[in-house]
Design goal:
The protein is α/β, with parallel strands linked by helices. Helix content is 36%, strand content 21%. The protein folds into four domains: 148 residues, 3-Layer(aba) Sandwich (Alpha-D-Glucose-1,6-Bisphosphate, Chain A, domain 3), CATH 3.40.120; 83 residues, Alpha-D-Glucose-1,6-Bisphosphate, subunit A, domain 3 (Alpha-D-Glucose-1,6-Bisphosphate, Chain A, domain 3); 105 residues, 3-Layer(aba) Sandwich (Alpha-D-Glucose-1,6-Bisphosphate, Chain A, domain 3), CATH 3.40.120.10; 72 residues, Alpha-D-phosphohexomutase, C-terminal domain (TATA-Binding Protein), CATH 3.30.310.50.
Length: 447
Amino acid sequence: MAKKYFGTDGIRGKVNLGAMTPEMAMKIGMATGQYFLRGNHKNKVIIGKDTRLSGYMIEPALVAGIVAGGMDVVNVGPIPTPGLAMLTKSMRADLGIMISASHNPFYDNGLKFFGPDGYKLSDKAELEIESRLTLGQENFLVKPEFTGRVKRLDDVRGRYIEFAKNTVAQKLNLGGLKVVVDCANGAAYQVAPQVLWELGADVVPVGVTPDGFNINSSCGSTHPEYIAEQVVTHGADIGIALDGDADRLILVDECGKVIDGDQIMGVIATSWVEQNILKGGGLVSTIMSNLGLERFIQSKGLSFIRTRVGDRYVVEHMRKNNFNLGGEQSGHVVMTDYATTGDGILASLQVLQVLVKSNKPASEALRLFAPIPQVMRSVSYQDIDPLENSVVKTAILDGKSLLGNTGRLVIRKSGTEPLIRVMVEGEDDKLVEKVVSQICQSVKDSA
């Protein structure tokens, strides 16, 4: 059965429309809370958020629904999504909810859900929750004496900072390393610079003045040109760009050149092989990762597994097959020895550890393979699915024919936005550009 509200990463949408209204937030709180009611103990939900203005609206509505259903709530305020997942597990909570739309603009918001084990929910759990959203609120409300309580936890940033530092060697000292960190005016605006500073780095923090509107606005991992400029301007050794909820990152070297998630995974995998701590015999990524990464990993005698797009599907395969490293080209890097979801800060620390040990500039130490020419574009659409249009189908078939056996073509609908994602990869960059342009134009013409 198809899901109506849940996408590839929880529930997301434009504020005050669809699922992102106060009424729906309260109902989602009721439905989710009921699904996670367990045992006779007082059930507990941890709620965090990023820095969007609408968080002030969504949070109290969500809390009201959960408390009305008989669960206690612990509000922790702005915190990276992986920090919320960590707290859910460490505090023995029954559920964790992060109020965030990740890399989206301020006018969107969303809800990410984590079970008691700190992992994102399965498709089955999401369908179960959705089925409850059709019920009237009388099905969720408890007797007055059983309503929940709400409290605020104020020391979460300190907890996360110590947790992050403990994922790297105790002897790691970033002294002498100048690091620009772009927090996207989002959830990590306090913790990310602090972690790096405590480890000895000369930190240049940018994107650390959230005002409710500027999250991901011309900054962060989806706008690497900003941190590239900052790195060059400040003469830094490396730049770290997080997204709005800090569950992913993009790096730039000392020359201002982007180092994407594929290169980051290659660096960490190589380091872990040398330390004999890589599990599963390889790396798990998605259909979007570059063929260059696949060839590089296989050249090391390791396996390279692809899943559908979405870090949750990467994690599902990792858990099932005992891998401890996986991620996405977009910068989600999952290291299950340390965290249950993608964590941009933890991944950056692993890379900095390699950089310090190498005694080389980032442009040399962190580029381990040459990527195959790859172009990705996004085309917006309205209500009608362009992928069902005959003109678009023909353009896709023509593209596959042109590429033959020398390239890859991935066309998909975004799970978080009304966009068609077009990715074409091949040895001939001119042919790649031609195929991308033709398919994108067919999508636009189908509107």
